[in-house]
Amino acid sequence: MATALERLTAVEFGSRPDPGYPEELIQGRIVTMPPPTPRHGQVCSRVDRMLGFFADEHDLGHVLCNDSGVITERNPDTVRESDIAYYSYAKIPKGPLPQGYLTVPPDLVVEVRSSDDRWDDIQTKVDEYLHAGVRVVVVLDPKHRTAQVFRNDQPAHSLGPDDELALPDLLSEFRTAVRRFFE
């Protein structure tokens, strides 16, 4: 295990006992995160159920929630705690997932903006996900009931409450009005 002055690897970070509060590993250093609010948890749960049921019904892939770690950088390692992550069965076969962090990036990450999140910090996280190979990052903002959709090959796309979120290249026919995530 690394000392306070050394940097941890993703494996070392993931093998530590749960401290009982949220943390991320940023360039080898542990960063304590503020605990999420009930509203944050409510929106995450809704997204997880909507995407998870759809992915199961259409036999598409794994939907993970509860701050599942995503490795976004190596040497030094960064592990971001995504709110929701989707891995197609083409990337991760059906069945129970292995222990430890997955070695491939998810196809989709959904982040739910908390009231104290700064857009600069969110953009840094989005950029890390995309650079690591995540195909699409969606940032949901409960306060404004909006979604920002980010891809490497396109400018960010803003969606209002009545706009439809569809990701046909990842989730076949999944479509929903953005407001449904916030109900």
Protein topology:
Elements: H1 10-15, E1 23-26, E2 29-32, H2 38-57, E3 61-73, E4 78-88, E5 108-112, H3 119-132, E6 136-141, E7 146-151, E8 154-159, E9 164-166, H4 168-171, E10 175-177
Parallel strand pairs: 5-6
Antiparallel strand pairs: 1-2, 3-4, 4-5, 6-7, 7-8, 9-10
How would you describe the overall organization of this protein?
The chain has 183 residues and is an alpha+beta fold. The protein has a single domain, classed as tt1808, chain A (Alpha-Beta Complex). 24% of the residues lie in helices and 33% in strands. It contains 4 helices and 10 strands. The chain has a 6-stranded mixed sheet with strand order 3-4-5-6-7-8. Strand 3 (61-73) and strand 4 form a beta hairpin. The radius of gyration is 16 Å and the shape is globular. The N and C termini lie far apart (44 Å). The mean pLDDT is 94.
Main sheet overview: 6 strands, mixed
Radius of gyration, whole Å: 16 Å
Task: Give start-end ranges of low-pLDDT stretches.
Answer: none
- Give the overall pLDDT as a whole number: 94
Provide the CATH topology: tt1808, chain A
Could you give the order of the helices and strands? HEEHEEEHEEEEHE
Q: Name the structural class.
A: alpha+beta
Strand segment count: 10
The CATH architecture comes to Alpha-Beta Complex
* Helical content band: 10-25%
What is the spatial order of strands in the main beta sheet? Answer: 3-4-5-6-7-8
Look at the structure and give the CATH class: Alpha Beta
The tally of helices reads 4
**Strand percentage:** 25-35%
- Supply the CATH superfamily name: tt1808, chain A
Shape, principal axes of CA atoms: globular
Count of all domains = 1
Rounded to the nearest angstrom, the distance between the terminal CA atoms is 44 Å
